[in-house]
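> call design_seq(struct)
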């Protein structure tokens, strides 16, 4: 009986330590943009469709869009790129946003995005955090200008609004 209790306690302690250290690799969900190394077949599987993998990033240079705007003193980077093959679930393109102030990346409480398409239809999506960036997928493959707007909330509780036009013509 004592051995079973000791085994249960050691399992609980080791799993709680993995969570406390943010060890997502052992939990089966690895952040594709994290700098933590992966091993074995998990690494090969992740490199195949990982948008942050060097091979994927090199192939995306063609057809990418990056524009920086200052919104209420925050430097906001808007990055639009065609979704890699096999990752088009959210849309044909990935909208990625990074917010900085004084060369420091700002962690946001919330961020929403809205795209108004050339036909005046619009759609809004919550953005999800991926590394230092926030991301949402949209169908931006039809011709014309798309108005991209974001509304983000900083740790001080203030809301900030801004946007760009894609493509920049």
């Amino acid at each position: 009986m004592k051995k079973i209790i000791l085994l249960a306690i050691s399992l609980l302690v080791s799993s709680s330590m993995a969570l406390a250290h943010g060890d997502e690799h052992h939990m089966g969900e690895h952040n594709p943009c994290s700098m933590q190394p992966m091993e074995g077949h998990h690494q090969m599987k992740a490199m195949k469709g990982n948008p942050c993998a060097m091979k994927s990033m090199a192939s995306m240079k063609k057809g990418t869009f990056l524009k920086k705007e200052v919104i209420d003193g925050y430097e906001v980077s808007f990055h639009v790129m065609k979704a890699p093959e096999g990752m088009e679930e959210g849309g044909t393109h990935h909208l990625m946003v990074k917010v900085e102030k004084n060369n420091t990346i700002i962690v946001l409480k919330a961020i929403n995005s809205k795209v108004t398409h050339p036909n005046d239809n619009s759609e809004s999506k919550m953005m999800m955090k991926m590394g230092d960036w926030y991301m949402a997928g949209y169908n931006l493959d039809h011709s014309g200008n798309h108005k991209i707007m974001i509304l983000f909330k900083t740790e001080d509780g203030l809301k900030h609004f801004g946007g760009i036009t894609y493509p920049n013509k």
